[in-house]
């Protein structure tokens, strides 16, 4: 679903991401993206190619984790276009559970960060 206030959702998401160590933001493929040491760990998407959804895409440990999350809560998790096959999952932000989003951001950050930084989060 689309968030009723996507700008407010992005502000909250940005705050969570930029609170993580050595995180940077840039526009990638027309959308806000967050990285650690040049490796992306989150993409914000609002109505991406007309999909009528507001989501954040985050890294996972791979296909087994993606399948488990989608099976566990198909209203919250979905397969993101283009990057799903690379181990990413989309989290619906229409009515976000911010604690869950914060936890997933930290996990995604750890998966993207160089091993020398992994203990920082």
From TrEMBL:
It holds the Pfam family YjbR. GO terms for molecular function: DNA binding. The keyword DNA-binding applies. InterPro entries: YjbR-like_sf, YjbR/MT2646/Rv2570-like. Keywords: DNA-binding. This is MmcQ/YjbR family DNA-binding protein. It comes from Alterirhizorhabdus solaris.
């Amino acid at each position: 679903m689309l968030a009723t206030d996507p700008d407010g959702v992005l502000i909250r998401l940005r705050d969570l991401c930029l609170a993580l160590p050595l995180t940077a933001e840039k526009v990638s493929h027309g959308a806000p993206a967050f990285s650690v040491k040049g490796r992306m760990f989150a993409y914000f998407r609002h109505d991406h190619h007309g999909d009528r959804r507001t989501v954040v895409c985050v890294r996972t440990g791979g296909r087994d984790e993606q399948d488990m999350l989608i099976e566990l809560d198909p209203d919250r998790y979905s397969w993101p276009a283009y990057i799903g096959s690379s181990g990413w999952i989309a989290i619906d932000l229409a009515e976000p559970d911010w604690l869950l989003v914060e936890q997933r951001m930290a996990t995604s950050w750890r998966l993207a960060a160089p091993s020398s930084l992994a203990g920082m989060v």
